[in-house]
Amino acid sequence: MVAHASMTAIRAEPPAEFAGPLFDWSAFEAAPLARDPFDFLIVPGFIRPAALEALNRDFPVIPGPGNVSPAGLPYGPAFAALLDELQGRPLRVRFAAKFGLDLEGAEATITVRRHCEATDGHIHTDHRAKLITVLFYFNQDWPHAGGRLRMLRSASNLEDYAAEVVPAGGAMLAFRRSDNSFHGHKPFVGERRILQLSYARPSALVDYQRRIGRLTKPIRRLLNMS
């Protein structure tokens, strides 16, 4: 599980401006699970508008690019409430039912990212340890051509895609990791706020975390270890 950051002293209650559900579960239930070219789910506006505003206010301070654990980062109470919700069993049960997977015993890991660099977005499938990857997007809007994640039909063609996710407005993307779960985006440099929740096989995850910590970014790309 992910340890909370240094601002735990102000975690007690979510801010009043989003008293109520963080997520739009009715939209989640209504959204179809796509099967082509692999299992994925896109829910625009999954994070409710009032919650999204508070989460952006309390988003972790991250000085540079890269996916990092929220442990040790400064963030506010709204983001702390989100982390609590993501680590709860009810959310796990909903994703398990939607994808028809048994996630009991799967290890949940969380990373956050604030800045995107020009070398991000390469086509990959995610590491084989992962069962489901869930991405949450926090930018209020997205007028840019780059940075829009695409569900791809191959490892070689960024233009051959089944769907494209606008990384803003509280959108959520979830997909089942497989040998053909290719995804990527066109280059973008700037602030692209994202949280990644992954459910992974515990034994494989330990090996993955140990090895990825020793590798440089270019080597991780070659091994599809994002």
* Succession of helices and strands: HEHHHEEEEEEEHH
What's the number of helices?
Answer: 6
Biggest sheet features: 5 strands, antiparallel
User: Which range best describes the helical content: under 10%, 10-25%, 25-40%, 40-55%, 55-70% or over 70%?
Assistant: 10-25%
The count of DSSP E runs of length 2 or more, i.e. the number of strands, is: 8
Range of strand content: 15-25%
Our measurement of the CA-to-CA distance between the termini, rounded to an integer number of angstroms, reads 19 Å
Overall morphology: globular
Order of strands side by side in the largest beta sheet?
Answer: 1-6-3-8-2
Query: Radius of gyration over alpha carbons?
Result: 17 Å
pLDDT average, as an integer?
A: 86
Give the class from helix and strand content and strand pairing.
Answer: alpha+beta
The parts where pLDDT drops under 50 for at least 5 residues are 1-16, 212-216, 219-224
